[in-house]
Amino acid sequence: MATINNNYLKLKAGYLFPEIARRVNTFAQANPDAPIIRLGIGDVTEPLPVACRTAMTNAIEDMGDRSKFKGYGPEQGYAWLREAIATNDFQSRGCDIDASEIFISDGSKCDCGNILDIFGHDNTIAVTDPVYPVYVDTNVMAGNTGDANDKGEYGGLVYLPITAENDFTAQIPSQKVDLIYLCFPNNPTGATATKAHLQAWVDYAKANGSIIFFDAAYEAFITDPSLPHSIYEIDGARDCAIEFRSFSKNAGFTGTRCALTVVPKTLTAKAADGSDVELWKLWNRRQSTKFNGVSYIVQRGAEAVYSPEGKAQVKELINFYMENAQIIRKELTAAGLQVFGGINAPYVWVKTPDGLSSWEFFDKLLTNCFVVGTPGSGFGAAGEGYFRISAFNSRANVETAMQRIADKFKV
Amino acid sequence: MATINNNYLKLKAGYLFPEIARRVNTFAQANPDAPIIRLGIGDVTEPLPVACRTAMTNAIEDMGDRSKFKGYGPEQGYAWLREAIATNDFQSRGCDIDASEIFISDGSKCDCGNILDIFGHDNTIAVTDPVYPVYVDTNVMAGNTGDANDKGEYGGLVYLPITAENDFTAQIPSQKVDLIYLCFPNNPTGATATKAHLQAWVDYAKANGSIIFFDAAYEAFITDPSLPHSIYEIDGARDCAIEFRSFSKNAGFTGTRCALTVVPKTLTAKAADGSDVELWKLWNRRQSTKFNGVSYIVQRGAEAVYSPEGKAQVKELINFYMENAQIIRKELTAAGLQVFGGINAPYVWVKTPDGLSSWEFFDKLLTNCFVVGTPGSGFGAAGEGYFRISAFNSRANVETAMQRIADKFKV
Could you tell me if B292 and A257 are in contact, meaning their C-beta atoms sit under 8 angstroms apart? Predict the structure, then answer.
């Protein structure tokens, strides 16, 4: 009799985004004329850079020419893309990362989940709270947690609160943890990490033999030149950190699909016999066996992000969304709301007014302003009383949404 | 101290295709002028159908138009692609499969490995021998096996030999197994399964509460109209089978990346408390959490496979490769070799002559004929003494390779 992975039954049924979709649909059906504006999910809205489109169109032509046709590519990605990334994203910032340490994939979400394949089930795992739900759910699925309590916290995980009280800084835990998820610029709070803060994490990890999973999906939105874009800007990070990056949010690839994961060859973890095993070798074997590479066409599109035209067009996209973020910050502040983030990240993290819960504020914004955001409590217990507004939308939609909120909340 | 997944250390280092690459490279370096022809790896060589290229070029234009731009798509794939597949690949052959039961992915290799995520580690697993190595290796990684013996067989797995002695038919095991991998038309042997044979498997699975993983990646190469293309052509299969399909081999998508997995909503397996759990719900949750869908551009290319032009162009591709297979069969037979497969599959399975081992024959073909094939023993212990020749190459290369073999082996 075939049996299931019972860990799946521990997952809480009410996942955040389906619940948002349910409430929005119910409201929209009852109010078919309400001009709803969605600032909830972190999905881009503006066209793909023309440099990427041109490169992909040319790649499709290659696929029609027998002499240029591409069948199976390297599971790790094409060398020309890995080289472009190594040079532009890492070496240009002083990071000692080689192209061979970069693995191209179809999504950071996939890699953040799949990376657990190469680790043991006896690791103690730390996540921030609030946190991107995928980190937690994939650990539940892998059997790395116990059951959830009433607040939605899973047994066995170490939760590190990031709230206004600690200035949205992920505190170094007093206990020993083996795997640590960090995301800066942070989703959902928009908070950032200074070099000194990341140095403290690297020092902790090296002292404890821990591995940091560093999610840098939003690095392109950093405006403060003193902030690190990569954890490999920190001394010692090559010995303790894996970094996840994506073309989703900088070049608008959420529907095009390309990402990358950096696994330095100097990283090791312990086997059962106490020996040190290179994580690069394990991840390379994992990807070679369970993955077949990203579409040649899409990899050519990603490569174009590093052309002079591509760089200029990506910068323009980023500036556009960050202007949205400035408008959101300004208007919400003028409306008397307390806001965080939105300066080095495309997310504004709002303290709910009048002691409203995250979901109460969600319902109020939806029914009174026809604006959809994301309840902070959906990202973890410490997100209760907060609310995420995304800067990913058209200028007109952002301005209209903010005007409606200002009209309702301004005293 | 972070620990690794120790199961990875059980994997045999000498994976088949890297070892082939190593031997070919060594030979090529010593003989730089040798005109090597590769009939080893099962990778397509001919251009993508023009219908697919046109559809993808149009999709890139959509991505440049704000009103048609696509961000995150459904993790399960777009409805228009799932509908086209349900109608054309399944309902047209009388299979009761709904579009909602079809999950679009970036590769069958990924899905064949990832499917294990939703199953328990206490299942008894059966594979044929020889077999596509990914089925075995992903079970090793997941901790579903013991160590390998000298023949490369992993403890805990049930091996079902398919050889000339049993007419390349996967025998129903006498013991109870919970998960069974079947691939027809078969990689590597090119063997097929009749409806009666698959009915026996479905009856066995239903009687034992087993789940069949049916890999139909090569169904497009079936020429015999009596053979089933899908396991869902068999009564009862909706209650016991998951099917994997791909656009890689029919439409030449090995470098473009698109595949699909069918999980009927009627499938269940046992939870620890003895209850029946719907596998569709688990797989849907797995894909929603650990996957973000296939590129919109690529999905539009896959959809075009079902247009009238696409269907005609795919048929032409298949016919081309199958003519290659006929040439291979004819010439090898004329050279006195015993051949199997190649009639309903793009692989010809050759009995090595003169009692040569698979690797001895590999070396002989490489050094004497400059032709690369795949040693049967690389697919499992029962593949020893066999050799796989792929029909994926240009007509000129196939004819030249066969001429060289005929010259060496003809008596």
Answer: yes
Could you give the residue ranges of the DSSP H alpha helices within B69-220?
A: 79-85, 108-114, 133-141, 195-208
At A409, the pLDDT band (50, 70, 90 cuts) reads confident
The structural domains of chain A, with segments of one domain joined by +, span: 9-47+310-409, 52-308
Q: What is the C-alpha separation between A91 and A100, in angstroms, rounded?
A: 13
Q: Is B276 helix (H, G, I), strand (E, B) or coil?
A: strand
Residues forming a β-bridge with A339: A350
Q: How far is CA B214 from CA A35, B174, B202, B305, B310, in A?
A: 47, 20, 11, 22, 25
Identify all chain B residues contacting A294, using CB atoms and an 8 Å cutoff. Answer: 106, 257
Range B13-42+309-409: architecture per CATH = Alpha-Beta Complex (3.90)
Annotated binding site of A for pyridoxal 5'-phosphate: 72, 108-109, 132, 187, 218, 246-248, 257, 292
CATH number of A9-47+310-409: 3.90.1150.10
Give the pLDDT of residue A14.
62
Q: Give residue B18's pLDDT.
A: 78
User: What is d(CA A66, CA A298) in angstroms, rounded to the nearest whole number?
Assistant: 19
ipTM associated with this complex: 0.97
Kindly report which listed range (A231-240, A327-336, B3-12, B17-26) carries the lowest average pLDDT score.
B17-26
Annotated binding site of A for substrate: 15, 42, 109, 132, 187, 292, 388
Which of B112, B117, B165 has its CA nearest to residue B142? B117
B311: pLDDT strictly greater than 80: yes
Contact A8 B65 (CB under 8 A): no
Note the helical H segments in A97-194: 108-114, 133-141
B31 is in an annotated binding site: no
Which of B74, B146, B137, B75 lies closest to B109, judged by CA? B137
Domain A52-308 CATH assignment equals 3.40.640.10: yes
Report d(CA B327, CA B343) in Å as an integer. Answer: 11
Please state the length of chain B. 411
Q: What is the CATH number that goes with domain B52-306?
A: 3.40.640.10
Interatomic CA distance for residues A222 and A216, integer angstroms: 11
pLDDT digits (tens, 9 = 90+) for A95-153: 999 999 999 999 999 999 999 999 999 999 999 999 999 999 999 999 999 999 988 89
Whether B63 sits inside 8 A of A255 (CB atoms) is yes
Helix (H, G, I), strand (E, B) or coil at B183: strand
Cα of A235 to nearest chain B Cα, Å: 20
Distances, alpha carbon A192 to alpha carbons A200, A342, A381, B267, in Å: 14, 10, 20, 46
